[in-house]
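Catalogue entry: protein

Sequence with per-residue tokens
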Amino acid sequence: MSQKVVYLFGAGINRGLMDRDGIVPPLATDLFVQAMKFPRLSHENYVRKIEPVFEYIKKYWKLDRKDLSTNHFDLEACYTLLELQLNEAKSHGSHKDTIKLQDIILKLTILFAETLQEFEYSAHNSDAFQELGKIIYSENADVLTFNYDTLIESTIESASLVLGRIPPGYRGGPHESGEISEDEIRYSHFNWNRPLGYGVKFDEVMLHRAGVPTYVEGERFYNTHSEGLYNNVILKLHGSLNWFVYSGVNRYAFTNKTDVSNKGKTLLSRGHWWFNEPAVKDGEIIEPLIITPTLYKNYSGNVLISSVWEQAKKLLDGCNRLVIGGYSFPPTDFAVRKLFLEAFESHSPDEIIVINPDTSVVRAIKDLSHFDKPILVCEDLDEFVKLYRNEN
């Protein structure tokens, strides 16, 4: 019987990355510190756009923009207060407060997304991340991740190499006739086709290849891939920056479009934001399908997210080797502790490896997985990659 390997990643795994100016991907505690280092995001025109966020934090935490750019700030506490106040405003029928709070949440979330977006290609500049992708791909491992970014997907794509067979007639341009062949639907730029790797199906899918973005109905996309989704998956427990849901709201007031039949439908696309504006598809605002860092996370409010959590439990229940990188099991996120306690109710993995400079997390992992053997700890991803290569 082959060994079943599962990787679980938190935001800390990305701290080994940095852009050319030495900026690192943000955690939930230093979003503003990192975001304000980018000239684009700290420009006065952008700051003016997100002024309601700064005013809100100033009101309740007495921290101004300068304070936020130099000190850690608890984003979980901010989101939690926002959502509690939003629920209260809705229950009281206060339309004005509801709109105001929703706007602050949206602006804060887009800032988070735009900051992460700045690191979209950073994994390609990291030998350790590229090696990690090769390891995961070669092991046919499964990945559970709490990260919104698509860095792990990108490394796995690179490891799978570029697909050389291009469909006849495909040039990457727009489809004037509107008809897309099945050969083109099956084609992806890499051998590992990202839309088949998430373990869930979307109502609409952007074909994952170079050229003009092209979308097909989810039913047709998955039917064309009759072999089904990949057996080895990336389960994004908090959603992803390239997962969206149609809002049913027109972005531009002057449009005559009244059909909101897409409302609630899911879309796998390419996460892209600019100047703190919401993402738009065909004139309709599409909302990122992510679980924001709040104290009271709703994992059952969306079919895709709840399916991901159900699958995660099964993967942990069947794994022999568990690698946990950059995640510290915060006591406020009890859903994750519940996931582990239930998954390891009747068995423990044969081996656990932790990638984390903070060794205090080992005790929590042992308790949650009932693991009674020594846990191997690597300080960072570089150490893990070296260990893996020496063993193989």
